[in-house]
Please model this.
Amino acid sequence: MTDYLSSAFTTLLVITDPLFLSAVFLGLTQSMTDAQRADVARRAAFNAFVLFVAAGLIGAQLLHYLGISLPAFRIAGGLLLLSSAAEMVFDRRGQRKEDMADRAVNLDHVKNIAAFPLAIPLIAGPGALTAIILLAGKAEGDVTRLGALLGVVVAVVFLCWLAMRLATRVSGLLGVTGRVVVTRLLGIILAALAVQFIIDGLRLALARNAL
Model:
C-alpha cells in the first residue's frame, strides 16, 4: 500500500506540476482582483477533481467496452507519460501550454479560464487522466486502494489550488532559474515512472500470453 500511495502521489504531482501551473495562472489572471483569482482557482480545482474521479471510476470500463486490454493501455500510457517527461526536460511542454493558455484568453476573454485552460489541459490533461486510469486499474478493484487513490487525488488537487492561490509569492520566490531547475528535475522523475509503467505493462502482457 505504501508503494502504491507513493507512486500515485509522485506521478500525479509531477504531471500536474503545481509550480508551473502557478506561473501560468498568474499570467492568465494578471488583470483580476484577488477575490476573482480566488474564485477562478476554486472552480478550476473542482473541475479537475471531477474529471479525475470520472476517469478513475469509468475509465477502465470504457477501455473494456472498446476492447483495449489494461496491459496495452499501461504501455501506451507509459509512452504518453514519457513524451510528457521529455517535453518538461527539453522545455517544450511549457511553451505548448502557454500557447494554449494565450489562445483561450483571446477567444473567451477570461470568462471560462477555470474550465479551459486551467482544469483542462493544465491540471487534468491527457497525461494526468491516463495516469489516473492506470493507477485505478493497478488497484484491481481493491476498495482500500481505490479509497487511497481518491485521497491522493484530493491532496494533489489541493496542492494545485494552493499553488494558484500563492502564485504571486511562489513566482517571486523561485524566479525564472528556480522554475526551470525544478521543472527539469520533475521531468526526469516522471520519465522514470513512465518507464516503470511500460515495464509493468510488458510484464503483465507476457504473463497473460504465457497462460
Q: What stands out?
A: The radius of gyration is 17 Å.
